[in-house]
Write a structure and sequence with these properties.
Length: about 160
C-alpha cells in the first residue's frame, strides 16, 4: 500500500497556489483594478500570502478545499449521469440547479468557518447569539422575512 501522508506537508503550498489563482481570476474577470496584469498579480500575491501566513485562516482554507473538491466531483457526476440518461446536459444544467450547488457550497463554507475559527467560543458571537435569541428580536426577524416574501409575491410579474 502506498503511504500518501507526506502530501499533507505541501498543503500550505497547494492552498497558496489555489488562492492565488482564484483571486487573480476574480480580479482579471471583474476588472476591479483595471487592465494592468502586474497590479492584479501583486494584489493576488499579497492576499494569498496574508491568507497563508495566518494559521487560523490557513486551517480554514485547508478544511474548505476538500468540501469544494467533493462538490465539484458530485456536480460532474450528476451532470454526466443526466447526460447519459437524457442524451444532453441542457436538461439538467439549469441556473437553479447550479444555484443549489452554490448554496450547498456556501453552507459548507459557513459550517467549516464556524468549526475552524472557533466561533462558538468567541464572546462576541455569544453576545450576538443571546441578542438574536431574544423573543422581540427573533419575532422582528421573522416579520421582516415574511414581509420580504409577501412583497416579492405581490410585486412579481405574472407570466
Amino acid at each position: 500500500m502506498i503511504d500518501l501522508s507526506s502530501i499533507g506537508f505541501f498543503n500550505p503550498i497547494f492552498s497558496f497556489v489555489l488562492l492565488f489563482v482564484i483571486v487573480f481570476a476574480i480580479l482579471q474577470k471583474s476588472k476591479i483594478l483595471g487592465e494592468s496584469k502586474p497590479i492584479q498579480v501583486i494584489v493576488a500575491l499579497v492576499l494569498s500570502l496574508i491568507f497563508i501566513s495566518v494559521v487560523e485562516v490557513r486551517g480554514y482554507v485547508e478544511s474548505v478545499i476538500p468540501w469544494f473538491a467533493v462538490l465539484i466531483v458530485a456536480l460532474f457526476f450528476v451532470v454526466f449521469i443526466a447526460a447519459l440518461g437524457m442524451g444532453k446536459t441542457d436538461a439538467i444544467a439549469k441556473p437553479w440547479f447550479i444555484g443549489v450547488f452554490i448554496a450547498i457550497l456556501a453552507i459548507a463554507f459557513i459550517y467549516q468557518g464556524y468549526n475552524s475559527l472557533n466561533v462558538a467560543s468567541n464572546q462576541d458571537y455569544i453576545s450576538i447569539k443571546n441578542w438574536l435569541s431574544d423573543s422581540r428580536i427573533y419575532g422582528g426577524l421573522w416579520l421582516v422575512i415574511f414581509g420580504a416574501i409577501a412583497t416579492f409575491a405581490i410585486t412579481r410579474k405574472a407570466k
